[in-house]
Description:
With 429 residues, chain A is α/β, with parallel strands linked by helices. Chain A has seven helices and 18 strands.
Amino acid sequence: MERKQADYGTQDERYMIQGERYQGQQYSHIYFTRLHHMRTLLHALVPSRNPNVPVTTVLGLEEGKDCVLVGTLFKHMKLKPSILDEYSKERSVVPLVKPHNFMHPEDNLILEDESGRVALAGAIPPAAYVTGVVVALHGKETSAGNFLVEDVLEAGLPPQTLLPSINEDKYVVFVSGLSVGSSTFNPLQFQLLIDHITGHLGDENEQTVASKIVRVVVAGNSVHIAPRYLNGQTVAAKDQPRIAEPIKELDIMLTQLVASLPVDIMPGCNDPANFSLPQQPLHRCLFSGASTYNTFSSCPNPHEFELDNVKFLGTSGQNIDDLYKYSDAKDRLEFMERTLTWRHLAPTAPNSLGCYPYTDKDPFLVESCPHVYFVGNQDRYESRLLQGSEKQQVRLISIPRFCDTGIAVMLNLRNLECTTLSFSTSFDS
Amino acid sequence: MRSDGDVKSFFRQQKARPGAAAAAKPTGGVSKKQAPLPHQKQAAALLFHPTPDHADGADARREEEDRERKAREFDMDMRYGPCLGLTRAQRWHRAAALGLAPPPHALCSDDQPCLWEGRV
């Protein structure tokens, strides 16, 4: 039995921080380039959706006159934590934060461009938007000085290359949130996954399926290092091996995987990588065993690649988790869908999500639509095929944490269908 | 009062005391003084024979002032994006890459910071 192969091409250059120099620049540059790119895009869309309506700037608004505005949204949030609150003398009267996010019924949206800002009212629900999204709005200025929105024009799904027709089954396995070293991590469960993928488990049928797996993507949070070692104090010499222990264990596991098929590993928020997005690849030295194989590739987060010309784009989950804190949707897939229609992977960066202060570009703009869009470290498995207005098809996958659920996701390259691989080590369930 | 008159008087004020201005601003273009155009130098020498050095210096200074004025106008033009944390050349390159048609490259080929650097 021979393992299937797939042509792999990485498109991660845009997420690599190379030759950038920090010269005290602030985040205004990112917002400027984002607005500039999105405005050219939206200006091209306005004539087809709202013909005969003039496009203007905030400064050029006239009361009662129909027009289209393009700008960056700012969401004024009552409950958004602010460092200044901790220094304020008087006890704040701010109501308590809900357990899961910072939303409040009084949140309101403001639109900004280079010339000014205007408060928004009307047909734009604050709950669905976050700071940093660029939209075009059709409406008019009211006598109160607000902008009454009639219609929101989002950029929509980016253009997509044609999905290649593959006439045989080839699978890609996604796993995230291994959390090696945490109390919930079950080594046997992960070993079962490895043995299944490498074809050491099951009968001939299962091995045939396993031989069609062409790649494994580890989407973040692979290790868990006890927080008591990360409190900023010098780590005692006797504790140092304990910090390295989870990584060594992960390396042993990964070595078994890379010996039989290609593996991509992305950093997540708990991994020993930089905090701010885009997270740079985990250093090869961390994986002394696995990195000796050329099937091992350490990738940045976000990660963009192609397998047999099927385009993949994914993150380790920070962008969606942050949207969940500052906006509302019925499930995680809806957040993912929004980031695609806004054409921006992480609109809340740099506002509430760490981000490198780029001066000449915004790397998170989505210029071409992926076929598969995955997000790691979510609570549960969800998947949906998203249809765009121009026949784009995107498979959205929310990958659950493996250490909590024991679920890995298997995607078929032939028809973009998704199944789960579920592993359990207890008899009663 | 006309507003453009205001701007002009602002620039003239800056130029009237070149010594003070150079001391105050971190930018000061020093390199251009050594390279006045040769034919201008000759013309100046022919016309103002009694005081050639003086005329030559004034000419070069005027040219430099002109350059610096244009560079500052570029700094102040918010169409090309925020300027703090970038050198003029970097900002020019970004504007060109974004298709914003910035003014001629010559005035920003230096690695000077913008007008506001260190002041805000």
